[in-house]
């Protein structure tokens, strides 16, 4: 029997734990944790994600300081806004929703976010902490994948893991987290030769490429663990949109020993780890909660 790695269910459990802690801590601190999501332009997929994130904040008791800005907002305005949010005591987490419009330099902006409020874990300081194996804020999607594997009792140490995709948001931090958990990690990407031979030798395959039905039965060895980070919208024959991952689920799931569905796998975990990072940052910034640090995901 293939184990379905149910991200929706785990997200619900972790969000309930976070809710209880936020409920206890808000009176102690005198304010709830706060998250500011900055969205520039009106990409409909981004708008849907941002709405999801705000609804999840509401459920958990995190205050939202969302900013939806027009697509022609100047770089200097965004730098000023981030400086304000860095200085705002009510804000524990800041996230710049990606992608941003062409005229915006996202790297420059991400580098101006206070590393201790960097809810996405994309600041060089937090990436450096991850490389060194130090505690810090970590990229939400790979952190969510690690939680999902851990909560389902999947042993990582000594396994061959192949991560497909090398983005700074997913592929690179994913490889580092698997390495930290003692996997033997290979990072594959669009220039990799003979990908299917490589993935067929893997015990764990994480796909983060963004192409629907890319990973087929030919790519997977029997008993492998398959994690699908892809979020692709495809048009159905009825003219509607359906969310699918990178993995041909029907073909791959009978071969795998464990697999994440899309939707309901990695996506809900990403949102939950964003909430987690915001609460972690709150905990680390508030002296009243000093004794609680390190208890969050245990
Ligand atoms: N700075 C930044 N950080 C991000 O973490 C970030 C980003 N920019 N830009 C876009 C991607 C995408 N992303 C998702 C979050 C939740 C779901 C999610 O909740 N998915 C649900 C379904 C959602 C639906 O039905 O539309 C699921 O898979 O079950 C998906 C994708 C975060 N991203
Ligand atoms: Mg890539």
From TrEMBL:
Its EC number is 1.5.1.5, 3.5.4.9. The keyword Ribonucleoprotein does not apply. One of its GO terms (molecular function) is methylenetetrahydrofolate dehydrogenase (NADP+) activity. It catalyses: (6R)-5,10-methenyltetrahydrofolate + H2O = (6R)-10-formyltetrahydrofolate + H(+); (6R)-5,10-methylene-5,6,7,8-tetrahydrofolate + NADP(+) = (6R)-5,10-methenyltetrahydrofolate + NADPH. Residues 5-120 form the Tetrahydrofolate dehydrogenase/cyclohydrolase catalytic domain. It holds the Pfam family THF_DHG_CYH_C. NADP(+) binds at residues 165-167, 231. Keywords: Amino-acid biosynthesis, Histidine biosynthesis, Hydrolase, Methionine biosynthesis, Multifunctional enzyme, NADP, One-carbon metabolism, Oxidoreductase, Purine biosynthesis. It comes from the Bacteria. Residues 139-284 form the Tetrahydrofolate dehydrogenase/cyclohydrolase NAD(P)-binding domain. Pathway: One-carbon metabolism; tetrahydrofolate interconversion. SUPFAM superfamilies: Aminoacid dehydrogenase-like, N-terminal domain (SSF53223), NAD(P)-binding Rossmann-fold domains (SSF51735). Gene3D superfamilies: Leucine Dehydrogenase, chain A, domain 1, NAD(P)-binding Rossmann-like Domain. One of its GO terms (biological process) is methionine biosynthetic process. Catalyzes the oxidation of 5,10-methylenetetrahydrofolate to 5,10-methenyltetrahydrofolate and then the hydrolysis of 5,10-methenyltetrahydrofolate to 10-formyltetrahydrofolate. Homodimer. This is Bifunctional protein FolD. It comes from Leptolyngbya iicbica LK.
């Amino acid at each position: 029997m293939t184990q379905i790695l149910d991200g929706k269910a785990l997200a619900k459990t972790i969000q309930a734990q976070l809710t209880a802690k936020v409920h206890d801590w808000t009176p102690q601190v005198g304010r709830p944790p706060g998250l500011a999501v900055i969205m520039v332009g009106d990409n409909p997929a981004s708008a849907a994600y941002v709405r999801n994130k705000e609804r999840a904040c509401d459920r958990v008791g995190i205050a939202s300081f969302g900013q939806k800005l027009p697509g022609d907002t100047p770089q200097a305005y965004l730098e000023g806004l981030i400086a304000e949010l860095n200085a705002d005591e009510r804000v524990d987490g800041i996230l710049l929703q990606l992608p941003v419009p062409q005229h915006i330099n996202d790297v420059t902006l991400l580098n101006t976010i206070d590393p201790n409020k960097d809810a996405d874990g994309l600041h060089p300081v937090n990436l450096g902490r991850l490389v060194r194996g130090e505690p810090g804020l970590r990229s939400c999607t790979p952190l969510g994948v690690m939680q999902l594997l851990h909560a389902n009792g999947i042993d990582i140490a000594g396994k061959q893991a192949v991560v497909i995709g090398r983005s700074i948001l997913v592929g690179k931090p994913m490889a580092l987290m698997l390495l930290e958990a003692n996997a033997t990690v290979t990072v594959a990407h669009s220039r990799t030769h003979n990908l299917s031979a490589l993935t067929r030798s893997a015990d764990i395959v994480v796909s983060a490429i963004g192409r629907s039905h890319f990973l087929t039965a030919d790519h997977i060895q029997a008993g492998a663990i398959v994690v699908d980070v892809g979020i692709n919208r495809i048009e159905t024959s009825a003219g509607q949109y359906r969310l699918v991952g990178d993995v041909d689920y029907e073909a791959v799931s009978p071969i795998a020993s464990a697999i994440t569905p899309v939707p309901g796998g990695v996506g809900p975990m990403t949102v939950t780890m964003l909430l987690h990072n915001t609460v972690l940052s709150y905990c680390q910034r508030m002296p009243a909660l000093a004794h609680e640090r390190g208890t969050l995901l245990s």
